[in-house]
């Protein structure tokens, strides 16, 4: 179940849930408060069961509301009207799942200053031009640092700690899964790290690459959509070593773990598609290095279908290797590195996973504006990848 709703910030929306299972199809429950006069209101509950044509469903709801409740809308609602006035995706196709995989998100330092100065402290404004996120089934990105208001600054050269008020903005934008395996997650110590995990859990954002102990860090996040099981795992190849997860301590999952292959193999047996995120490589290099290739190939040999990389802060090359696809670095998603054109953009990898084991890929390019806000997306050409 998800709390995401396009009415989330609208006056009159009280709350709701939406979800999907194969037997029940799409199910939505929403509660609204409708003003009837200056002082009177009416509470309305709208429930959809077994929905498979969202446009037609909305059309029917609007017709009912116009007939039974005056709410100021047009009386001739039809499918064309719904399409024109909403940002809903087309009818769900149960034969494939659409994923989005983005780069590094860092909401401290210059980004935080920009949000406070230009958006009145509202982090959700950073995502207002990213409607593509809510049109996708699962959205993943790397969370570059802790989100917390506790901890002790470890005095690294660059030390990040993001405001917890940003977490609902991530959720509201449609981000489903984040990696907490990177070189900045320990910037404010283990207390801030565990607090980050708690904030993510509270806002129903799944995390990979770390956990409250080694067991949680090594187990994949599994999401089932339309009968397709998709798993996510994360590793860091750039530390920090001191905050690695243990049997009794929270921390990250490191790529130098001697059980690297085994962890991936175990995860791949539980799903149809396994995505592995690795924080690796050299900063600001547009070509991957031998170490990245070694780990990415190793991950696919162990059962991963897709490997995505973070850390270089620029887009790197991609590769089809055996039965897998590798994007060595997705670059930046939201970051304050305004010193070059390459660091002010990232790849928003759009992947369609099919039940027959095939996938298609679009290498969309996202560009940030001077406010460090994703501003434009240039759609990539769809590439169909068929594996034997």
From TrEMBL:
It comes from Candidatus Nomurabacteria bacterium GW2011_GWA2_35_80. InterPro entries: Beta-lactam/transpept-like (IPR012338), Capsule_synth_CapA (IPR019079), CW_Biosynth-Accessory (IPR052169), Metallo-depent_PP-like (IPR029052). Residues 98-337 form the Capsule synthesis protein CapA domain. SUPFAM superfamilies: Metallo-dependent phosphatases. Belongs to the CapA family. SMART domains: PGA_cap (SM00854). CDD domains: MPP_CapA (cd07381). Pfam families: PGA_cap. This is Capsule synthesis protein, CapA.
């Amino acid at each position: 179940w998800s709390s995401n709703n396009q009415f989330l910030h609208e006056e009159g929306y009280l709350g709701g849930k939406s979800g999907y299972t194969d037997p029940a199809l799409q199910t939505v429950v929403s509660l609204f408060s409708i003003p009837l006069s200056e002082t009177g209101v009416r509470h309305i509950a709208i429930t959809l069961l077994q929905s498979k044509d969202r446009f037609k469903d909305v059309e029917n709801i609007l017709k009912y509301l116009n007939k039974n409740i005056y709410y100021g809308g047009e009386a001739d609602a039809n499918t064309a009207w719904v399409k024109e006035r909403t940002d809903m995706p087309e009818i769900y196709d149960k034969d494939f799942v659409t994923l989005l995989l983005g780069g590094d998100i860092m909401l401290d330092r210059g980004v935080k200053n920009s949000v406070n100065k230009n958006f009145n402290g509202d982090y959700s404004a950073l995502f207002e031009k990213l409607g593509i996120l809510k049109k996708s089934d699962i959205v993943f990105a790397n969370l570059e640092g802790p989100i917390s208001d506790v901890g002790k600054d470890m005095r690294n050269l660059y030390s990040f700690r993001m405001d917890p008020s940003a977490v609902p903005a991530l959720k509201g934008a449609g981000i489903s899964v984040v990696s907490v395996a990177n070189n900045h997650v320990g910037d404010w110590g283990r207390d801030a790290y565990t607090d980050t995990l708690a904030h993510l859990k509270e806002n129903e954002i799944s995390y990979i690459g770390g956990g409250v102990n080694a067991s949680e860090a090594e187990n994949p996040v599994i999401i089932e959509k339309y009968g397709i099981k998709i798993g996510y795992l994360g590793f860091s190849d750039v530390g920090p070593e001191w905050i690695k997860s243990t049997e009794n301590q929270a921390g990250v999952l490191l790529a130098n773990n001697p059980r690297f292959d085994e962890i991936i193999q175990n995860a791949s047996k539980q799903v149809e598609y396994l995505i592995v995120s690795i924080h690796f490589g050299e900063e600001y290099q547009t070509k991957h290095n031998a170490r990245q290739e070694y780990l990415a190939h190793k991950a696919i040999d162990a059962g991963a279908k897709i490997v995505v990389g973070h850390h270089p802060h620029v887009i790197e090359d991609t590769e089809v290797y055996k039965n897998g696809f590798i994007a060595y670095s997705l670059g930046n998603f939201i970051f304050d590195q305004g010193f070059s054109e390459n660091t002010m953009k990232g790849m928003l990898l759009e992947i369609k996973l099919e039940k027959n084991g095939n996938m298609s890929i679009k290498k969309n390019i996202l560009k940030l504006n001077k406010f460090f806000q994703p501003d434009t997306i240039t759609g990539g050409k769809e590439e169909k990848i068929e594996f034997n």
